[in-house]
Structures are given as structure tokens and as C-alpha cells.
Amino acid sequence: MTPTTPPSQTLAQKAAGAPKSELHIHIEGSLEPELIFRLAQRNGVKLAYDSVDALRAAYAFTDLQSFLDIYYAGASVLLAEQDFYDMTAAYCERALADNVVHAEIFFDPQTHTERGVSIETAVAGIDRALADAQQRGLTSKLILCFLRHLPEADALATFDAALPLFDRYPRMIGIGLDSSERGHPPSKFERVFEKARAKGLKLVAHAGEEGPPSYIYEALDLLKVDRVDHGVRSIEDPALVARLADARVALTVCPLSNLKLCVFDDLTKHTLKALLDEGVAVTVNSDDPAYFGGYVNANYVATIDALKLADDEVYTIVRNGFEASFVTPGERAAMIAKLDAYWHAG
Ligand code: ADE
Ligand code: ZN
């Protein structure tokens, strides 16, 4: 069947209305400036900016590190379980408005434990908001990420402290690796990923965002990840692209993030379409939507426009998001059936 778009509806509108997944969203990156200020006031936290506008004006990033410095400062307002609940509930509202039906959400426990906030405080608040959102049609998973700029010993201690939580919170199904990529290759975290694999957890890692293709090989060969977050620099290595395509290793691509962090100086130069053409299972996601100018629909709309994606290409990307999600085969089939009913209607 050839998918068609009714003339009354643009492809961007069709994508916006489609049931979608989101597989790459840092919940701390969904903290909008207004909420940062509200939580700062509630918790008596002093910020380096004296207004929402001044904070927003600082969102002019030159690379990943320039963003991370502000992102960690923003997260400093999160102290109580209710703060994590409020942040996550706000994200769920935005996701539901974008017709996201399934989200796999990252959180960074080490960002909070270093301020004396326990992992359980964070998980309890996030999980409670996700349970509430599930009643409204958004299913979800939670992925605990390690900060790669810190030593592996810290990641191992964090993993050990979090172990009981994996059993207590069934939504928490995996681990990831984020923060400053350059100089912190996946090989640094081989032991903690091995421990997580032995426990049967799902494994993901940021690789090939700013780092070279060799980091993607390490994520695959040493960490044995199920998905690669970003992975856009894989295009520099044709053998790697062929391997990703053959093995159906999904890339959770975040186009507006890549633009804002100067991975590409223009969205028309983004490698997503070239990777799609090579058969790589690319997906579209928002990364840190409060900082990068848009949630998942904004990412679809901008990417469709910049890369002149066709109807069947957008369908494939949305479908890839369900294919690559960590759900049961039955849940996956139901999500794809909903997508098909929507996409091929009328
Ligand atoms: N933490 C939050 N967003 C990130 C990104 N885009 N890359 C690495 N670490 C992150
Ligand atoms: Zn990310």
C-alpha cells in the first residue's frame, strides 16, 4: 500500500497528530524556566539569574558542555519528591499534547545525590507522575543514566544504591550513559554495564553525538547496548552504518538538540535522512525540550521541513520509535496497529 497524505493536511500536521513514542528525553531537560523559578522559590534555592527572561537568554549554547553547565544549574532546584513529581507531570502534559503514547525517560541520579537528594526521592516523584499519566494514555519506562564525566567507581556505587529500586519500581527497566562525551569513552563504563546486563536490564548509551564513531563501536562491542542515543556521527564510517542497519540497532536522534548544540550548523545538514536512506532505524526525539526549543512534535516538524522527508519516510521513523521501544511484543503490536490505523486512514 502506498501511504498518502490528504491534500488538506500537511505532512508535518499528519506527523504531529500521529501516535508516537519518545525514546530520548532527559526528564531534567524538561524543566521549563518558569518551573525552575517556581521550585527555586519554593525551596529557597538561589539561582545565578534573576528572572525567567535572563535565564532563557542564557540558552545560547556553543557545544554540549556549554549546555550541561546550565542544565545542571537548573536541576539544582529539585529537592523534594514533589519537585520531581511536578517536573515529570509537566513533561507528561506536553508529551500527551504531542500525541506521545509511550515515553522512555532518562534521569540522572548523580546530579541529585551530590546535593543530598536520595535516588529514591527522585524515582518516587518521577514514578508517581508517570503512573498518573498512564491513566491518561501515556505509558512509560524509566532509565537510570550515569554521568560519564564522573569516575566509573561513582557509577558502580550509584548502581549498587539503586539496585533495590529496580525491583520496587518495575517501570525502571534500564541504564544509560550521558553528560560530557569527549574524553569519556564508553569503555570507561564497561564494568557497570556488565553488572546491569547480568541483572537483565536494558542498556543504552549516548555515543556519536560529539564523540567519534569509535565511541559507537565501543558502545556496541563493550557495553553491548540495545540502542544508541544520538549516533549521528556514525555516518562518517560506512562500515558502521552498514552494521547498525543490519543489526537493526536503533538510533535515538534529537534533531533540535543537535542544532542547538552546534553538532550541525544547519538542520538541512543533519545526517538523519542519510542514515534512514542506508536503512538505519532512526527515531526522532526531543532530548532536553525545555532547552532546545521544542518537544517531540517540534522536532518532527523542523526535520520534515529541513530534510524534505516524504510521507513513507516519516511513517518509518514513527514506526521505528515503536519497534525500538522496550515494551512487550503485544504492546508493540498494539501501538503499531494504532499508528497504521491513523496513518493510512482516509
Ligand atoms: N544530558 C542531557 N542532555 C544530554 C545530551 N544531549 N548529551 C549528553 N548528556 C546529556
Ligand atoms: Zn540526551
TrEMBL record:
GO terms for biological process: adenine catabolic process; hypoxanthine salvage; nucleotide metabolic process. GO terms for cellular component: cytosol. It catalyses: adenine + H2O + H(+) = hypoxanthine + NH4(+). Signal peptide: none annotated. InterPro entries: A_deaminase_dom, ADE, Ado/ade_deaminase, Metal_Hydrolase. It is an enzyme of class 3 (hydrolase). The active site is at E209 (proton donor). Binds 1 zinc ion per subunit. The record marks H230 as: Important for catalytic activity. Residues 19-341 form the Adenosine deaminase domain. Its EC number is 3.5.4.2. Zn(2+) binds at H24, H26, H206, D287. GO terms for molecular function: adenine deaminase activity; zinc ion binding. Its cofactor is Zn(2+). PANTHER family: ADENINE DEAMINASE. HAMAP family: Adenine_deaminase. This is Adenine deaminase. It comes from Paraburkholderia caballeronis. The lineage of its organism: Bacteria, Pseudomonadati, Pseudomonadota, Betaproteobacteria, Burkholderiales.
